[in-house]
Amino acid sequence: MLNGKVYIVTSPDLVNAVNRNSKNIAFNPFIAILGKRITDHDEDTSQIVQHNLNGENGPGYVMDVHDRTVASLAPGQDLQQTTKAMLSHISNYFNTLTTGVEINLFEWTRYTVTMCSTRALYGTENPFNRNSRFVESFCHTYANASFRDFDHALNLLIADVLPRLFVPKGYRARMELGAAFEQYFENFVPAQSAAMIRGRHSANTRYGITPLNQGRLEVGSLLGVLANTIPSIFYTLVHIYSDQGLTSDIRDELEASGFVGTPEDIRQNPNLLAMPETCPLLYSTWQEVLRVHALGAGSRYILQDVTLEDTFLLRKGMVVQMPTAVMHSDVAAWGEDVNEFQPRRFLKQNSTSKGGFKQKLTAYRPFGGGASMCPGRHFVTLETMALAACMLSRFDLIPVNGQWNIPRQKQESLATNVFPPEKDIRVRIVTRQGLGTSKR
């Protein structure tokens, strides 16, 4: 599967054609092959994962888990509860930010998002909250050492060539995290976890997956929870704070929509689920962050010969790659300013410009597309917007070196889409006077 011909698809129209052929050009085979290399679950679990992988004979494990995840993270009560749970934990980390404190912004973001997201999803008994070995302290910032080692080593783990020898830190981190989540599921308390985790645990139990392998599978799921989310939130904060005019305009928008004050104030806003609609500039900025910084590629496996648009024959057994960065930098789709960061690019009033809003969206794929579109996209959007609102409401961030520079990204994993920065940014915290005021 990984040694054959690769078809590179960059045309939005052809990408849509690939999406329409999800039965013949599928993502799930990658879950079966690469998933085992990532998580090291046993052969019995592999058989469960591969059974009815694409719904050949009714639902199977992968489709069941996917459908449960989509339902739990779609706009609705479950998503609102999970987002509120995340916000309820943020105050603990904001309380340490006072005027004069300096932090490494990416490291602080990584620790805060890791802790708040995992508590929201798994409850306070989750491995990150219980086991201090998973948390590494550095001055006023923190990093999850085990997950970081696992994430950094992911490409070599996927290669699966003597990982214990050639990537010992990543191998050990994977085993430690898997064992910790095994213990978590052995003592699972449904009422303390989010709907997504309850659904996955229910499916695991139904299909006979042991706690040991549930723990290993959950390590792979962490990639979806954390690996793309953390750098996305970091770059959102950097782009906003590096533009004083944008910072002021978004603060005005947040004040007008009532998303100001403490994290608890924002948590209690009745329009939390509607934040993308009530805060369009912040939402457009977030979308532009993903357009600029989502650099991965979507992959599909061809199950049957298929012809796209009556022209391009794709052979069974080969792989389709759809590089996000190519489509996100297409002048025909985005215009001559494609290489510029334009936070208002996705505002609805810009939809009448040449090319059109809807046409641009066909070339916009930070969450993939078709049947395999990321089911967590609504949660990460609300998580990012809510955390940005909390930060903008309470603090100014001043770069210690005197100026903002958007750091380049470094590719660390084939399984992630938004890569982390090559360098961190050290910033000084300044507490704003008068919560909810957009002008100081």
From TrEMBL:
Q: Which domain of life is it from?
A: Eukaryota
An annotated Gene Ontology molecular function: monooxygenase activity
Q: Which Pfam families does the UniProt record give?
A: p450 (PF00067)
Keywords from UniProt, A to Z, are: Heme, Iron, Metal-binding
Q: Which cofactor does it need?
A: heme
InterPro entries recorded for this chain? Answer: CYP450_monoxygenase_sec-met, Cyt_P450, Cyt_P450_E_grp-IV, Cyt_P450_sf
- Residues binding heme, per UniProt: 374
Name the family the entry cites.
Belongs to the cytochrome P450 family.
Q: Which PANTHER family match?
A: P450, PUTATIVE (EUROFUNG)-RELATED
Please identify the protein, giving its name as recorded: Cytochrome P450
What organism does the UniProt record list as the source? Imshaugia aleurites
Q: What is the lineage of its organism?
A: Eukaryota, Fungi, Dikarya, Ascomycota, Pezizomycotina
